[in-house]
Amino acid sequence: MLRPDGSSVAEGDDAHLWVGPSEAPAAPPQVAIVGVHPLSGATTWAQLLHLRETEFDQPLLPTERALLVCRSVPAGLAQVKYAIRDLGRDRVAAVLVVADAPGRPIAAAMREQKVVAGAAPAIRVPWVAALRGALQIPNPATGRLARVAARVNQAVTAVIYEEMDKN
């Protein structure tokens, strides 16, 4: 039984069993990885994050949002801006900006990342030497690769759930 203020009169460890129906939590939206240019790293990150990869020219499923992937160079970031324009901001969950080399991105790329971050959440992926030239991703990922993949996964999950809370 519910009180006028919405609280329950049920008490005890098993109260949830007999209080009555409640609102079911919303399922998280589906996310597909979309590389916006060749060699963006989309296939690698789709495997590491266990997400479906689709090509940019292929339609997303009606319930899916895109996790766009690009390299941290001005040309890659320009392609992300075109992709956001073409898909619409509401269909873009976030952008993975994958480092193209060790160290800081060049100044022009840093400026472009700020522009992209104004349109969609941008998640920077640091350089991981273990992925350079790798034909296969180590399974399971270990060391630095495992740590970076876990941080990226956590950031993507946070962005998705933050968007759910807004809606």
Structure write-up:
This protein has one domain: Rossmann fold, CATH 3.40.50.300. It is 38% helix and 17% strand. The protein contains five helices and five strands; from the N terminus they run H-E-H-E-E-H-E-H-E-H. The chain has helices spanning 15-18, 42-49, 74-87, 107-119, 143-166, and strands at 30-35, 52-54, 64-71, 92-98, 122-125.
What level of helicity do the residues show?
25-40%
Annotation field: number of helices? 5
* Strand arrangement in the largest pleated sheet: 2-1-3-4-5
Number of DSSP-assigned strands: 5
If classified by CATH, what would the architecture be?
Answer: 3-Layer(aba) Sandwich
CATH class: Alpha Beta
Keywords: Plasmid
Region (Disordered): 1-21
Task: Give a quick set of tags describing it.
single chain, about 170 residues, alpha/beta, Rossmann fold, 5 helices, 5 strands, about 15% strand, plasmid
Topology record:
Elements: H1 15-18, E1 30-35, H2 42-49, E2 52-54, E3 64-71, H3 74-87, E4 92-98, H4 107-119, E5 122-125, H5 143-166
Parallel strand pairs: 1-2, 1-3, 3-4, 4-5
Helix pairs in contact: 3-4
